[in-house]
Design goal:
The complex is a heterodimer. Chain A is built from 14 helices and 11 strands. By secondary structure, chain A is α/β, with parallel strands linked by helices. The radius of gyration of chain A is 22 Å and the shape is globular. Chain B is built from 25 helices and 2 strands. A two-stranded antiparallel ribbon of chain B has the order 1-2. By secondary structure, chain B is mostly helical. In chain B, helix 5 crosses helix 8, helix 5 crosses helix 25 and helix 16 crosses helix 22. Classes of the chains: A alpha/beta, B mainly alpha.
Chain lengths: 415, 553
Amino acid sequence: MAATLTGVRMISFTRRVAVLALLLSGLGLGRAALADPAPASWDQALAQAKGETVYFNAWGGDPKINAYVSWAAERVQAEYGVTLRQVKLSDTAEAVTRVLAEKTAGRSDGGSVDLIWINGANFAAMKRQGLLFGPFTQMLPNDALVDVAGKPTTAVDFTVPVDGLEAPWGMAQIVFIYDSARLQDPPRSMAALLAWAEAHPGRFTYPAPPDFTGATFLKQALYEMTDDPAALAKPVDESGFAAATAPLWRYLDKLNPLLWRHGQQFPQNSEAMRQLLDDGEIDIAFNFNPSEASAAIAQGLLPPTVRSYVFDRGSIANTHFVAIPFNANAKAGAMVVANFLMSPEAQARKQDPALWGDPTVLDVTKLDPAGRKLFADLPLGAATLPPEKLGRTLPEPDPSWMTRLAEEWRQHYAR
Amino acid sequence: MPAITLALFLLPVLAGLIGTLLPALGLLPSLGDTRFSLRPFARLFAAPELPGALAATLVSGLLATLLSFLTALGLAAALEGTRLFAWLRRLLAPLLAIPHAALAIGFAFLVAPSGWLVRLAAPLVASGGLPPDLPIPGDRLGLTLAAGLWLKETPFLLLAIIAGTNQLPVARFLDIARSLGYGPATAWLKIILPVLYGQLRLPIYAVLAFSLSVVDMALILGPSTPPTLATLLLAWFDDPSLERLGPAAAGGMLQLLLVAAAILLWRLGELLIVLAARAWLAGGGRGHAGVMSRLIAGAIALLLFLLASASILALGLWSLAWRWPFPQRLPASWSLGNWLGAGEGLGRVLATSLLLALATAAIALLLSLGCLENERRHGLHPTARVLWLIYLPLLIPQISFMFGMTALLAWLGLEASLAALIWSHLVFVLPYVFLMLADPYRALDERYRRAGLCLGAGESRVFFALTLPMLLRPVLLAAAVGFSVSIALYLPTLFAGAGRFATLTTEAVAANAGADRRLAGTYGFLQAALPLIGFGLALLAPRIAFRHRRGLR
């Protein structure tokens, strides 16, 4: 989900200090709570969910997304009698820390987090430490509509098998964007990008890792450079890391001096990079949301001549999910919300570029005619590629790669 | 009263320093670290960004302070007594009131290669319709940041100079000097400055400490890879894995040492200049008539004023723009959407900012008045040491004690509450309000009070019926200063509010990072407008209240 998490940064660490204080004192953890038994069937889940309040811990930095969650809250209240409250996080790791603190303090029921928007490293950590409830997704009726064959990242999250512990919510894929009024034939591979940068110095850049989009650019480049893509699916092997990444650093040593500001400065995030494109300071940018370019045009943040495209050898893609902590206070309610978020109605609304523009996890061909019409009626936006043109997707490497690549990048270029 | 007040704003600073020192030494009980260790410092010094961060911090901070001081000095020396200076004095309050974040956002757009200045000069500069590839803002040494700080700190130091000269018989000194044949600027430098400098010392040190540790302006104008030290530390404190908490706390201590070293360095410079200047001072050189220096000073004052107002004007234009692409000089399409669409958010953010600033200014005013009245009734004479104490929160880098202060607030059960936020703002607002109020309060002729007492009024009646009305103008001005300081605060708002309280400052900085200039322009423009309105009201109210009392307006 971090794909949509760049941008507004808010300080969160008092909240973490508060969690730590909580851990230390045990205060506030003694509250007796009625355990919410794991529902045995979907019908039981529906019955149990009525009247429950679900605290949805989700990154809250984008007003568009917050408005979408408010809409979902109205709908689940009307449909299922579930009260949905968004706890706006500045970083998902906050919720992970809180659940961990509760587990350490022995609160195995009545936890404060019912549903988390999650993927990648945070999911891997929660799964490893036994902090998740489930498997539960097989019980959700809408789970059958998910496009597991066409979107394998809905079953394998950053190389970690989902195993029914999180319900897919939306898709992300790296797409490149350019202004067709200034550039006609953009480069479609890392090698072509370098050649293009040689001919047009100062007209490309990428966000400085550890920014999520910037780190993903490193992973995308590594896929094209490495001799052993299979190694990326496994945790980083320190003994082989230098050899495996040597071609990447050789490439960046050549590319960086040809970047905007001679690679001495980098934009902070994908939004800053988008602004550089709008200001005419660079010619090519990229984003983790395939419909971001259309959304930005609609919001007046990019000129209407902007178009998007993908690299020939494929682009990194991932899925973001919702998961339920092991000690959630409203497990049945959380399951009902997760199922609603996967419904054609909720998924089509989420994909509308005017409202959010986050691509669906569903296989639209599996839907009934009414469901298919919902998607067929969606405006695509001039700058958004239709699904068949998004090309091959590359799976996310093991989460450890992102951490190590960002660290090494710091060592090389952030001095 | 003075004891409570001092405790209220010094306790968080001291507790905050200790609370940051402990994790810097590996002592963070809540994480299970209970053994003393220098590992956080080792990790700090191993960070690849550190050398670059230190270079950018030192260059931008020292350069900004030196340039601001020299400019303020030059303006005062060359222009004292001229009509231009009187005009400049009147512009000082609005210039001072512009919050750092708003000024920085506007200035960044002004000077960027695709910014307003290049657009205005487009036919001359741009090559083939593309903006030039210049490293502005965000150059590695922080020169753009230094320029932004210069815009903000020069008016502050000029105000300090004016406040200092108000207590000296400047006109008489200068008359004597001129009758001896000294040129005006030379007379000022040789006769006024040596007497005045002692009073400028603390304000200069405050500027030095601020420039070396500023965060919001550095986020907007400063380098990013690597950033300045304080910005780097903020990112480390922000790391959700808590991995970098130790090195960040250690960095807070390094930042403190850096500021202390810079202050010592400046002090050393003062001593050297005193030694070197002795011959010049006593040598009898009369200097020139000062026409040239007056012209240059006038030009610099004009530049300063134009840059600051163009920055704010740019914010205003962006807040009304829909699209304003390069290289257009004015927005291509206009929209009220930024003001209306931000609707719900803008209203709440505005309400939070106003509530916070009004509450903080009111409390600071009450405490300051209480202290000053107490001092007066008991005939106390504060020493220079007390002045240092009052300045303390302005001399210690915010990033060095904000973490510990947050821990203190969490321990008191106040984390992320409005009370915590007001308290954290009070730490910075109180010194300014007290300093603004102290001089006029102490200068009030004691005979008014005595006359009141002799006529049979009690102490409190004298205070409310005589002292307060006679001091209405300075009291309101002090409140306006407190209000504008609170509106501008960034780091304390983030830390004590835990990101849950969005103010115009945090939203403007966030919108700038989220790369929506229209939104950043809207928040920034409003952020700049509020203190101006505050000052306007503070100046207007006595005129209305005392429209029949000319001496009190």
